[in-house]
């Protein structure tokens, strides 16, 4: 409804007219892409504009910022820092359209080519703001399934870090340095989450909107008795040989339950999937205790 | 000078309980409350009873999200219905260990109906558990109830 207001309000037009005179309108974050038609004629009259050959609409990762305060981005006193506030916001109004939108580089206005996740601009190499709709599987270029090839992840991870590690942007703007820090952290998270089978399982369920309850308590006597015995065995084990034996047993169990999770996940039997995750968590904890003792 | 010394001792005594165990926004490092540390370093009633024993009720509970298991056992005097002894074994974080240790202390000498009224909030308050560790006290409450239930199941047959 606020959009209608914008369309009809004349003060806005004058504001936009004013802003068109500004040499660089790289990130009018406050303007939703729905206002493109309004801006079109204005932008074309602007003198020193960026060399983008594509359509003149200006867009920042699909951010639409409805407040009137946001519209007043014009003027030489506009601080770049404020821009960061806007770009970090998610587009909560039309998240569906994210995939359909053309993402544009904040620096050179080049459009994302859509072949690789838009973390870095392919033409000017500047690091982009974090886009949470790009999930970890997309970042590391693997299919969204549980049984992925973990060896391939490392290469992709390192390739990304070569492009967006914070050490590479020391001389760049404050804004780009912040983007690099966030993107780099996100890529690291992606790598860590996907390499570990348990966290990968939890993440892939989360993408399906199935969340493992943190506070849930169970009273399954068989499972708990087994885990109790296992933990006691680890406590009482003497010598590395005994510990390694138990470790090997745990590895077997982990593999079994990983497979079980995969089957449950593929068949969308989410309760079984959660049960598998619970088991894996218990085995992982036991394994950690063994490693501490070794 | 004596006053100075006593003030110092009292000051310390008063200061410690006031230390926040884990206050999020205050900027202080997250710390275990001294009572939790005490239970962790000097746990009371660690051990096992024979679960096949007639007088013993065993409560076995777990929190799968963090991989905790807690076993709490009670020894009941059949005639009076009072819990004469209790022991526990917990694999988990310091808060979980402290919660179950405290639970064994609290159930001793009480009647079974009484211990069913022990609430996790009381345990949490006594140990000054931070919000993120409240589920540990819930686990302890569940363990008490499970132990009582197990005993009653044994005796209803």
Automatic annotation (TrEMBL), chain A:
It is found in: Cytoplasm; Mitochondrion. It holds the Pfam family HSCB_C. InterPro entries: DnaJ_domain, HscB, HscB_C_sf, HscB_oligo_C, J_dom_sf. Residues 135-207 form the J domain. SUPFAM superfamilies: Chaperone J-domain, HSC20 (HSCB), C-terminal oligomerisation domain. GO terms for cellular component: mitochondrion. The keyword Chaperone applies. Keywords: Chaperone, Cytoplasm, Mitochondrion. Belongs to the HscB family. PANTHER family: IRON-SULFUR CLUSTER CO-CHAPERONE PROTEIN HSCB (PTHR14021:SF15). This is Iron-sulfur cluster co-chaperone protein HscB. It comes from Forsythia ovata.
TrEMBL record, chain B:
Residues 31-155 form the NIF system FeS cluster assembly NifU N-terminal domain. Belongs to the NifU family. NCBIfam families: iscU. It comes from Forsythia ovata. It is found in: Mitochondrion matrix. One of its GO terms (cellular component) is mitochondrial matrix. This is Iron-sulfur cluster assembly protein. InterPro entries: ISCU (IPR011339), NIF_FeS_clus_asmbl_NifU_N (IPR002871). Coiled coil: none annotated. One of its GO terms (molecular function) is 2 iron, 2 sulfur cluster binding. One of its GO terms (biological process) is iron-sulfur cluster assembly. Its main location: mitochondrion. Its cofactor is [2Fe-2S] cluster. Pathway: Cofactor biosynthesis; iron-sulfur cluster biosynthesis. It comes from the Eukaryota. Keywords: 2Fe-2S, Iron, Iron-sulfur, Metal-binding, Mitochondrion, Transit peptide.
């Amino acid at each position: 409804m606020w959009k209608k207001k914008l369309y009809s309000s004349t003060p806005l037009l004058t504001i936009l007219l004013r802003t068109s005179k500004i040499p660089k309108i790289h990130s009018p974050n406050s303007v939703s892409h729905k206002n493109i038609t309004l801006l079109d004629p204005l932008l074309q009259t602007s003198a020193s504009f960026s060399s983008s050959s594509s359509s003149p609409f200006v867009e920042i990762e699909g951010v639409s910022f409805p407040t009137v305060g946001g519209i007043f981005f014009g003027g030489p006193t506009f601080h770049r820092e404020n821009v960061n506030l806007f770009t970090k916001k998610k587009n909560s109004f039309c998240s569906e359209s994210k995939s359909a939108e053309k993402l544009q580089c904040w620096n050179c206005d080049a459009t994302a080519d859509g072949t690789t996740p838009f973390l870095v601009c392919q033409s000017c190499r500047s690091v982009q703001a974090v886009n949470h709709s790009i999930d970890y599987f997309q970042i590391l270029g693997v299919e969204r399934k549980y049984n992925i090839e973990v060896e391939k992840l490392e290469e992709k991870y390192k390739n990304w870090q070569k492009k967006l590690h914070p050490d590479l942007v020391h001389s760049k703007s404050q804004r780009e340095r912040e983007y690099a820090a966030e993107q780099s952290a996100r890529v690291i998270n992606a790598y860590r989450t996907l390499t570990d089978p348990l966290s990968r399982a939890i993440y892939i369920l989360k993408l399906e909107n199935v969340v493992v309850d943190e506070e849930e308590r169970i009273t399954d006597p068989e499972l708990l008795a087994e885990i109790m015995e296992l933990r006691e065995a680890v406590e009482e084990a003497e010598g590395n040989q005994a510990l390694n034996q138990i470790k090997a047993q745990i590895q077997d169990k982990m593999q079994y339950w990983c497979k079980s999770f995969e089957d449950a996940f593929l068949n969308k039997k989410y309760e079984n999937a959660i049960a598998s995750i619970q088991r894996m968590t218990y085995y992982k904890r036991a394994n950690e205790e063994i490693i501490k003792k070794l | 000078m004596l006053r100075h010394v006593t003030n110092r001792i009292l000051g310390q005594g008063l200061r410690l309980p006031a230390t926040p165990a884990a206050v999020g926004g205050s900027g202080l490092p997250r710390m275990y409350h001294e009572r939790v540390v005490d239970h962790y370093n000097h746990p009371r009633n660690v051990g096992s009873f024979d679960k096949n024993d007639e007088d013993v009720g065993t409560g076995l509970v777990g929190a799968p999200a963090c991989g905790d298991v807690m076993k709490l056992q009670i020894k009941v005097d059949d005639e009076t219905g009072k819990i004469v002894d209790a022991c526990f074994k917990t694999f988990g974080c310091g808060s979980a260990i402290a919660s179950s240790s405290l639970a064994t202390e609290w159930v001793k000498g009480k009647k079974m109906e009484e211990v069913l009224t022990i609430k996790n909030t009381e345990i949490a308050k006594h140990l000054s558990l931070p919000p993120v560790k409240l589920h540990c006290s819930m686990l302890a409450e569940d363990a008490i109830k499970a132990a009582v239930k197990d005993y009653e199941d044994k005796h209803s047959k």
